[in-house]
Amino acid sequence: MLRYRKSNGIVSFPLLFVLLMGCGASQAQVLSAIPLPEPLVTGVTIEETIQDRRSIRNYSDSWITLEELSGILFAAQGVTSPTGFRAAPSAGATYPLFIFVAVSRVDSLLAGTYLYDPNAHALVPLAEGDRLAELEQAALGQSCISSAPAVIVISADFSRTTSVYGERGESYVYIEVGHAAQNIYLTCTAMGLGTVAVGAFHDNRVAEVLELPDDFIPLYLMPVGEPADS
Ligand SMILES: Cc1cc2nc3c(=O)[nH]c(=O)nc-3n(C[C@H](O)[C@H](O)[C@H](O)COP(=O)(O)O)c2cc1C
User: Fold this and answer.
1) CATH topology of domain 34-225
2) What are the angstrom distances between the C-alpha of 219 and each of 34, 47, 144, 176, 222?
3) pTM listed for this prediction
4) Residue 95 has what DSSP assignment?
5) Statement: residue 177 has pLDDT above 80
6) Whose CA is nearest to atom 2 of ligand 1?
7) Bigger pLDDT: 13 vs 53
8) Ligand 1 closest atom vs CA 144
9) Which of 81, 111, 152, 195 is buried deepest, with most CB atoms within 10 A?
């Protein structure tokens, strides 16, 4: 794949360029991708995380670290092989999922919205400003959204999969978001963080808040943060 190399990271240029043009962003923003640190390694066993996983809706006022966010994003869609295969399975490796993050309280990051670039393991800044209150309104006022340090928004470009599998591809995308969400759940559990898969929201309002490209559909909102009672 054609890549655009810059001093602080490698951006998969064609994908981001197309995406960001769709988001109304400029090429300058493509060049300011923020490389993420290595994902945090917890050493917690998979058996423990499965046993302990629970949906958490109340978060403390704490910030999360960039290492923690890195681990969460890597679990969702990180590239885990030299040939580009990712942490979550994908029908025909078509990879229709795009992970956005609305940040409020993450160390070293300005409040704003970001797009995760799996190939570069980097964050592409999209817009400045805390959008969590707006996201909460789009999610029927669920308070777990605005009280979290960050909200992961899993969205999909269905055409990447339906262009290969036709109508059947639509089901594949919905199945796939479950794989990514479960990875996020288990990784948060291993890190001592909490999350909840939020499916009750107005698609169009979430898309507006995130300024998603026209063909992108938001599928899950996942607030992440330290559980309030820990
Ligand atoms: C498709 C789907 C949609 C969900 N939507 C919401 C939601 O909008 N708000 C919420 O608080 N929890 C939501 N949940 C989380 C469930 O309420 C939760 O998984 C369930 O209560 C079981 O609890 P547990 O996850 O702790 O095992 C959703 C879960 C799924 C699978």
Assistant:
1) NADH Oxidase (3.40.109)
2) 25, 27, 17, 10, 10
3) 0.89
4) -
5) yes
6) 199
7) 53
8) 11
9) 195
